[in-house]
Amino acid sequence: IKAVLVLVSFEMVLGLRVNFMKSKMNGVYVLDIFLARASAFLNCFVASLPFKFLGILVGRSPTRVTF
Are 23 and 43 within 8 A, CB to CB? Predict the structure, then answer.
């Protein structure tokens, strides 16, 4: 419920709308059932690790670079 309040506040303050059909939700230390119910409530998708954000792979162990 707190996340919904944050999103509604975001929309009201900035005058922008969140496109939930393009949105994905990740969870850290939360149950899978919670993610499934929250994504169904918000009408968005559940993403898994690793994923790409702005072209950068997130959630994967960095590879060691040797010179």
Answer: no
Compute the C-alpha angle 17/21/22, nearest 5°. Answer: 85
- C-alpha triplet 33, 19, 50: angle, nearest 5°: 50
At 56, which helix (H) or strand (E)?
strand 56-58
Q: What is the DSSP letter of 65?
A: P
Answer yes or no: is pLDDT of 4 > 80: no
Q: Look at strands 45-46 and 24-25 and give their pairing.
A: parallel
Q: Dump pLDDT digits (tens) for 22-66.
A: 888 888 888 999 889 988 888 889 988 888 888 888 876 666 555
